[in-house]
Amino acid sequence: MSDGPFSPPPVALSGDEAHIWFVRQDSICDSNSIDRYAAILSDDERKQWRRFRFEKHRHAYLVAHALVRTSLSRYCDVDPMVWQFARNRYGRPDISFPAEWRPLRFNLSHTTGMVAVIVAWGREVGVDVEWNDRPNLGASIANRYFSPREVRDLQALPKDIQQRAFFNYWTLKEAYIKARGMRLSIPLDQFSFRLRSAEPISISFAPELVDDPATWYFERHAPSKCHTLSLAVRRLADASPRVIIRETVP
Questions:
Q1: Which residues are CB-contacts of 124 (< 8 A; sequence separation ≥ 6)?
Q2: Does the bond joining 148 to the residue before it have cis omega, within 30 degrees of 0?
Q3: What element of type H or E holds 227?
Q4: What is the DSSP string of 52-96?
Q5: At the N or C end, where does the chain have fewer CB atoms within 10 A?
Q6: At residue 240, what are phi and psi to the nearest 5 degrees?
Q7: Which residues of the chain have pLDDT under 70?
Q8: Does pTM top 0.90 for this prediction?
Q9: What confidence tens digit (pLDDT) does each residue in 188-210 have?
Q10: Angle at the Cα of 138 from the Cα atoms of 67 and 133, rounded to 5 degrees
Q11: Which domains does the chain possess?
């Protein structure tokens, strides 16, 4: 590990695990942390950070990218500022340098008040976290983007829990398309989640998606009373990963 200010104890990450690191943005407000985070950004990231007009957007961007860099450096002897990333044609970043650490896969999500990153070895991963304290949001989006079965299942729920249930579906769908690295090029109504309290989360696909439900593992969590977090992990050798979730400060 680096001997600099970002030198947390090394963390073991086995091939059958996926790790989630999340941070509450309002827990970071001191100028020393802000300066250290800015120092580990790439030149392009620093330029993008400075382009944001509003302070809350600058802060969210800075914390998110500091979280990615410091989280990756928990697993190997690489200074956070050394990481370089390349985006695929859909915009998903992956490690490009150091080349020997390219099998370390990650995905980032941020929303009002919270940032989360998922890390795993050699498998597709996606995470989505949403601030769910937004009234009157679910129905219009669900009717437009969800599968017919998801819309029916959502509408069958009691009115007082439909809003929270909407974010369960929405974060799962976002986590899946982010894990595939294709974002909204995958139509959201061509795959469908089935959520039952006593059963594992299951997914089904329209034939044109050419994907196998048995190769995916999903979880959803509530890291705070007003946030919903979901993750998608590609199974290896038909085995479900062990997910470990930690709150941190980069």
A1: 105, 179, 180, 181, 232, 233, 234
A2: no
A3: strand 227-234
A4: -SSHHHHHHHHHHHHHHHHHHTTSSS--GGG-EEEE-TTS-EEEE
A5: N
A6: -75, 140
A7: 1-9, 136
A8: yes
A9: 999 999 998 778 999 999 999 99
A10: 50
A11: 17-247 (3.90.470.20)
